[in-house]
Each structure stands twice: as structure tokens, then as C-alpha cells.
Amino acid sequence: MTEQASPPRTSDARFYLLACALGILTGAIGTLFHLAADQLLAWHRTMVAGPPTAVSIGLAAGSTCAMVVAAVYLVRRFAPEAAGSGVQEIEGALEGLRPLRWKRVLPVKFFGGLLSIGSGLVVGREGPTIHIGASIAAGLSDMARPGLVERRGLYAAGAAAGLAAAFNAPLAAVLFVIEETRTQFPYTFRTYMGVAIAATLSTVLTEEMAGMGPDLAISVPGLPPHYLIAFAGLGAVLGLFGYVFNRLLLWSLDGVLWIGRTTSPYLFPAVWGLLIGALIVVFPSATEGGEALILDLVQENWTVAGLFLLVALRLATTMGSYASGAPGGIFAPILTMATCTGLALGSAVSVFMPEAEHLPVAFAIAAMGGLFTSTVRAPMVGVVLVLELTGSFELLLPVLATCIVSNIVAERLGGRPVYEQLLERTLRLAGTPRPDEPGEHLPVQLGWDGRRND
């Protein structure tokens, strides 16, 4: 039996230079994407500003409908894999189960993402930037032709750089690769360092272009340790919420797919665009990704009933927006719903703890990590992401307790990571199910030095 040849290897210096270029390009393009999306969304808001009238509602509904349909057309016509978040596509590419057609995905994700975010759909910017980063990595790999291990390591580094650019959170981006793609990432010293380099340089470009500091700066003083029991209870609620969220998301995708097959693939996006457009005028808090709304929520005095109503509305609009087939992520909508839930539960609990003046806001911050954890099933990413986003490092223990309990409850309920389920659904629809045995999965066959173990 002949010995199987090792995959071609790239020198350390060359690989690290590729990681540097990847981080710089992803940071620049990702930040440009964010700034352009913010400008388009601001223009859209200005166009329909003022008290609700038949004219303003009609104008908003029509413009949103046109933008959503255009985004879905770009996806369906040129790059179907650019729909939704794209994280599952990257995980599939790391396993060798999905192609990463960067020449198609990169422009569709960029311009389609601008249309979907600018339209007011309830989607996040992190999904497009993560997919954009991995696509840039694929382009660099085609030019530099590194070995298979390094190529897939660059895919992961591009994804990390995209997440870092989205939230100005480099450490969470590195942890995301380690924790979320732990079964697909070809873990070697060089690929790990490549992820760290790309995420760091992407953040540098983001801060140079868009400013420094946490994206969602929220100041909350620390809390005594005996309050941790309350945060554990919050984690239990969010564990259930995340489990339900994942089930509803898959159900929504299947429902919209059935509608498209029985009527037209553009019927639901058009109708949903009309609805979201009307809501932009009538009840704008139920639309858009929600980053700006988070800051407004922690500063305004919403009633508990109003917050729970907002959670229900945003849950519905998130499901429809993601299922429409337009490019966009779910991180930002999840963080916004978590903020509403945390504020509502924190306000209720503070009735019994009147001495804890800042408990509702602390609950809101911890809830972001808890709901992220129960859906994505990456608790350490949830902790670090929330702390980097808000700058509330004094809440490390409360956030950690919330995420741990949320993860345990989601596991006990039988919940699975949302991107794992989305990838399986994609493979099933494509007629290429995941192999039963490890087979050629890189993490099974590669050692620390990147060479095959067989």
C-alpha cells in the first residue's frame, strides 16, 4: 500500500502575509459595507419620516418591497448560497461539502446585503461580512494557491475577520472560529495564528475607518455575587427561548420554501417587503437589525408589557425576514430580542430587589449573551462578544452565569446549534447529505503540524 502524499505546504512567512492581507481587505471592505448600509438605511428612514399617512405608508411599503425583491433576485439569479447568513456555507466549505464560489458570492453578498439591510428587514450585518471575509480568503487562495490545510484555514480566518469588522470584537471573532467551527476548522499552529492575525488587522481597519470604542457602549456598575442566582434564572428562560427560536427559524424556512414552490419564489419576499415597509412608518421598533434600538431601549422607560410585545413582534419579523431569502444575519436580531427580554425580566425582578437600581440594564446585557448561547451554542463566544460589544466588563460573572445556564438548558431540551441545523438543511436540499463516517474530514486526519495522520 503506497503512502498517501501530504498536501502541499506554504511557508510560515507566506501564510502570515496572506493572513495580513486578508485581515486588511476584509476590514476595509466590511467597514465600507457597514457604512454604506447605515447610509442607505438612514436615507430610507428620511424618505418616509413624519407622521403615518397613507402616502408615507405606501411609499415605505413600495420602496421596501422593491429593495427586498431586488436582493432576492440577485441571490437567486447569481449565487443562491448567498441567501441568509452564510455561516453555514463556510462551515460546509471547511468540511469540503460546499463550494465557496467567491466571484459570485462576494458581489451578491455585498450589494444584496446593502439592499436587504437598507430596506429595513430584520437582519444583521454580521452574516454578510462573515461571508464576505471568507470569500476574500477564497480569492486570495486562488491567486496564492496554498495547500488544502492553509486554504481552509484562510476561509476560517476570513470569517473571523468579517465578524471582527461587524462588531469591533476581535477576541470574540477568534473564539467564534475555535468554538463554533471546532469540528471543521483544520487546527494547526499556523491556521490558528492566521485567524488571530486576520481578526486583529480587520479590527484595526474598522477602528481607523469607523472610530474606536465598543459598538454598543453601555455603562453598568458591577453587582454583588449574591445576585448571580437571578442571572441563573435568566439563563434558564433564555435557554428555552433559544430552543424555540431555532425551531421556529427552520419551520419558517420550510414554510417559505413551500410557498415559493407552489406559487412564485418572489411572492413571499414581495409581500413581506410591503409589510416591513408599512411597519417602518407605523411601528419602526419592530424593523431593522436593531443595533441602534438596543441603545434606545436601555435609555427609555418601556413597560414590561410593551417590552414583551416588542419581543413577540421582532421574533415574527426576524423569522419572515431571514426566510425571505435575502442576505442577512441573525446575530443582531437575536441581541435585540435578548435586550428586550432582559429588560422586561429585570424590571420584574427588581420589584423584589429595589436596592439594585441597574438590574434591568444588567439583565439586558447578560441576556444578549444568554440568547446567543442557546441559539448558536457557543457560550464563551457569547460571553466575550457581549463584553466587547458593550464594554461592561464589570458584568463578567453575571454574563458567564447566564450563558452557562442557558447552554445547559438548551442542551437538556435537545437543542442543537442553529448553523449546524442550517447546514444539514442546505445539504439535504442540495441532495448531498453529510457522510455518516468522518471520511475525508480534515480535523480527523490532520495533526498539529498540518500533516495527515494516516
Automatic annotation (TrEMBL):
Q: What compartments host this protein?
A: Membrane
One of the record's GO molecular function terms: voltage-gated chloride channel activity
Q: What residues form the membrane-spanning segments?
A: 15-37, 57-75, 106-124, 153-177, 189-206, 226-245, 266-284, 304-323, 330-353, 359-387
Which Gene3D superfamilies does the record associate with it?
Answer: Clc chloride channel (1.10.3080.10)
Return the annotated region ranges for Disordered: 430-454
InterPro entries (UniProt xref)? Cl-channel_core, ClC
Membrane topology term: Multi-pass membrane protein
May I have one GO cellular component term? plasma membrane
* UniProt entry keywords in alphabetical sequence: Chloride, Ion transport, Membrane, Transmembrane, Transmembrane helix, Transport
Entry's NCBIfam families? Answer: PRK05277.1
> Which named protein is this?
CIC family chloride channel protein
